[in-house]
Amino acid sequence: MKKIALNVVLLLFAKLSFAQGSTDYGSGLKININPDGSKYMRVIAWNQIWLRSTDNNPGSAINAESASSSFDIGNRRLRFLAYAQISKRYMVMTHFGINNQTFTNGGASGTSGTGGYGAGKKPGLFFHDAWNEYAVVLPEESKDFSLSLGGGLHYFMGLSRMTMASTLNFLAVDAPIFNWPLIENSDQFARQIGLFAKGKYGKLEYRISFNKPFATNFVPTDVPTADAAIAVDNSGNTHWSKAGYFEYQFFDQESNFLPFKVGTYLGTKRVFNVGAGFYSAPDATRTSVAGELKKNNINLFAVDTFLDMPFGTAKNKAAVTAYSVFYNFDFGPNYLRNIGIMNVSSVDPTFTGTPALAGAGNAQPTIGTGNIWYTQAGFLLPSSKDAPKVRVQPFAAYTYKNFERLDAPSSQFDFGTNLLLDGHHAKVTAQYSTRPVYTAIGQKDGSKGEFTLQLQIYL
Questions:
Q1: DSSP H or E run through 426
Q2: Per-domain residue ranges for the chain?
Q3: What span, in angstroms and rounded, lies between the C-alpha atoms of 192 and 188?
Q4: For this UniProt entry, which residues form the secretion signal (predicted)?
Q5: What is the DSSP letter of 331?
Q6: Is CATH 3.10.180.10 what the domain over 2-458 is classified as, yes or no?
Q7: Taking a C-beta distance cutoff of 8 angstroms, is the pair 223, 289 a contact?
Q8: CA–CA separation, 39 and 401 (whole Å)
Q9: Model confidence pLDDT, tens digit, residues 207-259
Q10: Tens digit of each residue's pLDDT (9 = 90 or more) over 156-188
Q11: What is the pTM of this model?
């Protein structure tokens, strides 16, 4: 009976984690290892294709031609995830794939020019996650407490709900990126190698980790005075980082079987959570003043809240989803990173005007020492009796950034709609986004826009 109960719980966790808005997929692609199904392997596959029209930053070129705008298509994510429940306590998790392949970049290391390994071609598969996990205290063994320990390349990175977001069920077309503040510098695509503990105590869910960040070695620019110092990622003999996230779940309890936090449940759960988290890494950045190097700690904090609430009749139920998070980032003085997702542009050497400080294409000030407030909300419209599976979910998001180095805050907006053909398993998302354009410190020169149409399938 215990084995049967455990199997039901595991299947339910898998279904709640990955099948929001659709009842046809159950436990997905699942292979039983033993007759009763308590030992099994599950495989998940998905892709997200982006079709975009972008107003480029001033000073942009594409393949050596000046370009004030661009129109492209690319592979945002093509991934596979597989996990195996070896026993009722022991699980192995792997997750691999590619990201951000465009017609100009995102190819395998060293690809450039023209030919079989030209620019943007044949991107290399890599592991996003690879860890082992052991359940010390199972949920059925204690009324109010559970605990699992694990180690490897993992996603239990603390800080905020969105720092551990699932990429399968975003409300907006994507995450805002600053939710992964170490992205591809001291982490591997939002992951680090280390040890983690996860579990629940009553309605409180906890996740903590102790990790070895990937080494960074940018050389800081030497400046004459401390007020002009600019921190860069340079960890030397890297010290261990610490991270944690603690979330109180007032209504329905969310699964923590896997680390991935759901963006919108599409009316399948009643959720209201409040959370807080942190990330800390000693001596992780450096500055140089009058020839003297100084090490700086990275200290990041966040508080957030998440609401997903269905309402209306069971037959054509509607739902509201909302998420808000406040980040306080300290990477050292004047630290700033400019990022452009799937940026197809490069700097135009023939440009004679004032270029954007962030660089070419769709790059923008994304991560830095300072504060960020991000809020998104969406409304799942009632279903239609003529097409009960097809749902429409308009949404909007607002971002406020105030980075120390830029000396001027900014606001930006996202507006869009999800057309859910079969929950998140088959959906089309249209979104228009604005971004600020800085041409000098403390000086914004308006904003630019980008329209994205995403086609998503996952099984």
A1: strand 426-440
A2: 2-458
A3: 6
A4: 1-19
A5: S
A6: no
A7: yes
A8: 47
A9: 999 999 999 999 999 999 999 999 999 999 999 999 999 999 999 999 999 99
A10: 999 999 999 999 999 999 999 999 999 999 999
A11: 0.94
